[in-house]
Specification:
globular; 7 helices; 2 domains; about 5% strand; about 140 residues; mainly alpha; Cyclin A, domain 1; two-stranded antiparallel ribbon; 2 strands
């Protein structure tokens, strides 16, 4: 893990992304933040949710699915937390999680970050430029 975090720091520096050191764990033990993200993806506000979640995790040092992190992030995005969290905890949230997991398995995704353009996958941050070039050439 020491190498992993050193590498994350190095990559952040390369991309000029702020980084405050090792992020707290556990990050999302009940996968609630992930299920909220799946709802956000359906409703077209996932980009903002992801940025706010990862900023809070890696800069403010608040793990995504722990304590009141999700409520704070949703409120910062002018979203009502209670109904979104209720949906994420419901059968709908479980169905979305299962569908996303099954879809990832079908693509052969085995780690993060993975970039998928159609059925073509690119694994690892060092493949981002290659994935973008592939997507531009489609």
């Amino acid at each position: 893990m020491n190498y992993f975090w050193h590498d994350v720091e190095r990559r952040a520096r390369r991309h000029n992304i702020p980084f405050a050191g090792r992020a707290p764990y556990p990050a999302d033990p009940d996968l609630l933040a992930l299920r909220v993200g799946l709802i956000a993806a359906q409703e077209q506000w996932c980009d903002d949710y992801s940025r706010a979640t990862f900023h809070d995790w890696f800069i403010a040092r608040r793990a995504p699915g722990v304590d009141d992190h999700i409520e704070r992030v949703l409120a910062s995005l002018d979203r009502l937390p209670a109904p979104i969290i209720a949906r994420a905890k419901s059968a709908e949230g479980e169905r979305l999680l299962k569908a996303a997991t099954d879809g990832a398995r079908k693509l052969g995704i085995f780690g993060a970050p993975t970039f998928a353009i159609g059925a073509e996958i690119f694994w690892g941050d060092d493949r981002l430029e290659e994935a973008l070039a592939f997507a531009a050439g489609r």
